[in-house]
Amino acid sequence: SSPANSSWDAAYERELQTFQDIGDTGEIWFGEESMVRIIRWLEKHKVPLDSSVLDIGTGNGVLLVELAKSGYVNLTGIDYSPSAIQLSEKVREKEGMSNIKLKVEDFLAPSAELSGFDICIDKGTFDAISLDPSDAAGKRKLYVGSLGRVLKPEGFFLITSCNWTKEELLNEFREGFEILEELPTPKFCFGGRIGNSVTALVFQRK
């Protein structure tokens, strides 16, 4: 496990402990507005409620719980951190959501059964992979390859990133994917220049 992985594991260990102590799901990564943005897009495009959805790097599983509350019934979350999956299992139990499947999986080397998804969602996992000090470029390539394997042709990929601009993401996913739209995200102003703190894009697999 690389140093990056062990610090994530430690963070989830702590979150798991907190959740067990006070029943709190801890920090919602990226804030609520990114979950709302994803769910609104799915609703606006009338994505059927029985579509198979994969949450890549599900963390505490809160996005899947929100999707289940919105009526989606075919939900899978993966994370390479066993503590994250344990945490999401606890969150899922507390919410009584039986239609969420959770698995420990390394998305860069996904198991064969991880395939045929209509929709893949990534909030921050591609960011985390691309910051890995050991061969980040190689890992990004593996990620794009895995995405092509698990997502059905014409399936949708919704990515929320804090590290990459729209142009950079278009470049990363140019092999096998095309952009459908950019979702509005909060802007921040820095030294008189307006920047984007978050980029959210929807791709379709060719």
TrEMBL record:
The keyword Ion transport is annotated on this UniProt entry: no
Keywords, comma-separated and alphabetical = Cytoplasm, Methyltransferase, Nucleus, S-adenosyl-L-methionine, Transferase
- Give all residue intervals belonging to the Methyltransferase domain: 52-181
Q: Which GO terms describe its cellular component?
A: cytoplasm
User: Is NADP one of the keywords UniProt gives this record?
Assistant: no
A GO term for molecular function: protein-lysine N-methyltransferase activity
Q: For this protein, what reaction is catalysed? A: L-lysyl-[protein] + 3 S-adenosyl-L-methionine = N(6),N(6),N(6)-trimethyl-L-lysyl-[protein] + 3 S-adenosyl-L-homocysteine + 3 H(+)
- Offer one example of a GO biological process linked to this entry: methylation
Question: Which PANTHER family would you find in this protein's record?
Answer: EEF1A LYSINE METHYLTRANSFERASE 2, PROTEIN-LYSINE N-METHYLTRANSFERASE METTL10
The protein depicted here goes by the name: EFMT2 methyltransferase
In its UniProt entry, the species of origin is given as: Vidua chalybeata (Village indigobird)
